[in-house]
Amino acid sequence: MQIVLCRDAEEAAELVAARILCRLREKPELVLGLATGSTPLGVYRRLREACQRGEVSFARVHTFNLDEYLDLPADHPQSYRTFMRQHLFEGIDIPPDQVYFPPSEGNDLRARCAAFERRIAELGGIDVQLLGMGRNGHIGFNEPTSSLASRTRVKTLTDKTLRDNARFYGPDETQPVLAVTMGIGTIMEAREILLQAYGSAKAEAVREAVEGPVSSYFPASALQLHPRVGAYLDPDAASLLGMRDYYGRARALQQQLEADGRL
Ligand code: F6R
């Protein structure tokens, strides 16, 4: 895992957005894996702005979101489809039929989850996967003890995740307790993964994911087995890492090799 210690969340979002834009210029038909939540907002703003300035086009891009709440209608204010429309899709030139979410309404969910996976494969697999992380280590909605080989499926949310997300629901709104999520096995097949974590509330999770043992009890630790993960952290999120100094030094040396044109 490449640990990128950033000055703040703004610098991290700038680096992650720059990476995606660079990949998009190299491959206009990029397949992007996307996350919701507060973590990727700075990246989405930068992608919208780059598109609106005419620097890039998403016209040939396909996107696959990690997850969606079961039975929440697409236009529900808390659905992840609403979130993505508001924060990214309405601000870029991606055709709506190139945007995919795991099936979260209706029947035959198991078969349709398999079809979602097949569609990813037909398009050649996910090139770049954006990830945030829950305080309990979930990636997507793969809660603790999710199989590290899991595929897209219905998943029950833990009490901790429900508590973390309760703030988005009014007193008389029903909060979904089930979601459909890409599996950890699905996520691990992406060619490149960009994980972001910000704030002290994520510090313990970052330590577990980066320096803890690989364990289904802490799903983000599975990323240690992926050959190309960048973890972009602000100082608060990185504050409990035992090898912080090393990560900073390693990044500086890497940047020097890049500047010398040797990588
Ligand atoms: C959302 C998702 C989740 C979030 C995680 C962190 O699509 O996959 O794993 O990334 O819950 O949420 P925030 O960014 O709101 O802290």
Question: Can you describe this structure?
Answer:
With 263 residues, the chain is α/β, with parallel strands linked by helices. 34% of the residues lie in helices and 15% in strands. It has eight helices and ten strands. The strands form two sheets. The chain has a seven-stranded parallel beta sheet, sandwiched between helices. A three-stranded antiparallel beta sheet has the order 4-8-7. Helix 2 links the parallel strand 2 and strand 3. Helix 1 packs across helix 2. The two termini are 17 Å apart. The site of fructose -6-phosphate (F6R) has 13 residues, from loops.
In terms of structural class, how would the helical and strand content be classed?
alpha/beta
Bound molecules: fructose -6-phosphate
Number of helices: 8
Q: What is the overall silhouette?
A: globular
Order of strands, widest sheet = 1-10-9-6-2-3-5
| Overall mean pLDDT | 97
Portion of residues within helices: 25-40%
- C-alpha end-to-end distance: 17 Å
Notable features of this structure?
single chain; 263 residues; alpha/beta; 3-stranded antiparallel β-sheet; 8 helices; 10 strands; binds fructose -6-phosphate
